[in-house]
């Protein structure tokens, strides 16, 4: 939500006619899109109301926001339309003599379960089951108008009265909180409506009349309001009890034990915006203007409600989520309150059923957080966070993350606006509750497509789409002057396993699908006098071509094509090992359908092109082969352990539990080992380990987090999922900062781990593509891992891009990946470096000298770029002087601290479902006891003597001393 949209939430609504529905409806904020965003904010407010009610009433779980206590639940009622149904009202399922089964739920309207004699409104919910794919939910209350004119007033009242279970609290809510939220005159009118609706004693819900209060479309007949009234001759009820808390249930049970309960369904037809307003839920449609027309009869048949079957039915109905949008377009709801119900009912019912979660920040965190943001904002203009004492620096980083969460999560999903009717959602299959799906669907059970394969990349910064600057300055010139590696610059604190690891991870996280080579290409003009060969065996050309991204489309209803879909799932689900769809995943398993992944003598099985059959096969080289082989073996080891511990577990379950375990172990390794290795400071080590396991036992740290971010007081696996008010996705900005190709060396020495003797000296082209597996099988996994462990990757800096990747053959194209990285970043609308850093709350550069003090770098930057605002994002990230012992820039780190915890926090399998019932006790123990070192040693125990003693497996290893050397110098 933009700040402008957030302000609208707290203001009186402005409205305009929408061209599509100008006959009936007007949208808050001026458009369906803005209104939808506002309503989503209001829906979260109602989820907070649910939590407040739970806390104040001591309920064991989250209840319905309203209508929490059911009085009746039956599923054998019948709705029959009249034979003399007026011609103009015959549409859709409303036909003369048509009869349908109906589920009926009658209830008290309050959000807390209170005695029936407590003053309250009462409600009726009907689900008319027309056919297997068509149902219509009709929701009504026993007062003709709402206390609220619109959704904003409705939510304000709910917040003011949430959990008000005493006279004092009700008084404070009505006379203090409500007037503060909506104004005194509006509060008075709302209070008057509520008093009128709740002020009389209810003898029986069988003789009450229930009104829809909002309108629905009735096909070509236009808008109607409907009501349910007792049929003529309904027996009277005894006086209301003042002692039996469930007297309404008992009265209905006694009534139904002896006779049917019958109601008439009636409709009132729309006249005009003045007499019968659509948008104002507090306005009555007077019977004298638009009389109620009987259209159908609802019959609840005689039955015994005091049986086990009847109680089971009532319990089942109590779990249902009734929603007026469970209907068809022909009968869709109309008006502000009904449109708000779309977001509110979906959020509230998902919250109640444990499908969606909310973790509101305590007020002290909001107050202290605001103070810290101001304090650190001022301090960081003088001293950067990385130069502060460790614990103060940690609090500074946490404050930066809170600001980034507020300002730098942008939802790019295209949603219904205005809302559309839909069928009743089918029940969630049990398998998807306990297993990661192949394509990432149903991680968030309330939004099954969130983060799934094919969902769009999000944004951390507003995109800047400038086709006129796609080729300015020329990407080839940028590459040759600022990226090309003349001399290898090593990162001496790491080994090449760290380079292989991050590519292994990126292939799990992100994949931009491209058009097939030669079908739709990006063309990059070359500088005068330069040519490029675009295909193997092709001739020289004056343009460089490479495949265009598929499926780019606008972020909104109009605009440039800058939104692309992820061809991988956004979740940390091991898809690079397991595949991103069911057919691939199953093809990687043992041929007999076993749980293990199919290996040949411990190695991956090559495909017809020589590249192994695995979850992700592009850009294949020895580093990926090492990681894929290692974790395929790890999966099989987990399978064997599960079989031994749980012999009755079937093979499919073994496979899925093993996948959960290995995926979580990979996430843990990246969080607590790889990242602290590349950002090698105590602050980062403490912070990242706290992300997984909670903060260390330090009273100052605990006090600071208790004040600033209570939710950080425990490791993310012990918390509830939290999307921070924006549906989860990885972002184009995240993709940009993980362009870490300089880590890849051009030359490789394959050595024997036992003797230290060099076996082969190879270039990158000798260890990539179809040549990879020959090298891997000849050297073996242990020697390959050892060779990477004793070698350094390249530093992530300017003029260190691998030469081999500047003339790289892939899928029938010859690519300069440095140029491809520059061009794709520009074309995807990622802001240039100065705008990028400013958007992440860092000071803008005023001159080139603000970026670098190196004379050669400055000369090259000034030669290539006209101004500092033109510097490419990747170039700026590489040029920036990082904090001490950091492997990449502070600007890139801003994206990292925002997205690193988000990838864990949003994933239910790494939060609420990180539990023994899902993973098994053995599985959780496996994750907690293991890391990169133990994984390597499980499959290559002969490497034990070479691994670092006090650092992670991504730090440089101890090399073996070759024969003929005494370990102190040349032989």
TrEMBL record:
Alphabetical list of CDD domains matching this protein: PIOX_like
GO function terms (MF aspect): catalase activity; heme binding; metal ion binding; oxidoreductase activity, acting on single donors with incorporation of molecular oxygen, incorporation of two atoms of oxygen
Keyword terms: Dioxygenase, Fatty acid biosynthesis, Fatty acid metabolism, Heme, Iron, Lipid biosynthesis, Lipid metabolism, Metal-binding, Oxidoreductase, Oxylipin biosynthesis, Peroxidase, Plant defense
E.C. code: 1.11.1.6
BP GO terms, sorted: defense response; fatty acid biosynthetic process; oxylipin biosynthetic process; response to oxidative stress
Cofactor field: Ca(2+)
Catalytic class of the enzyme: oxidoreductase
Residues of the Catalase core domain: 63-355
Protein name: Catalase
Natural source organism: Nonomuraea zeae
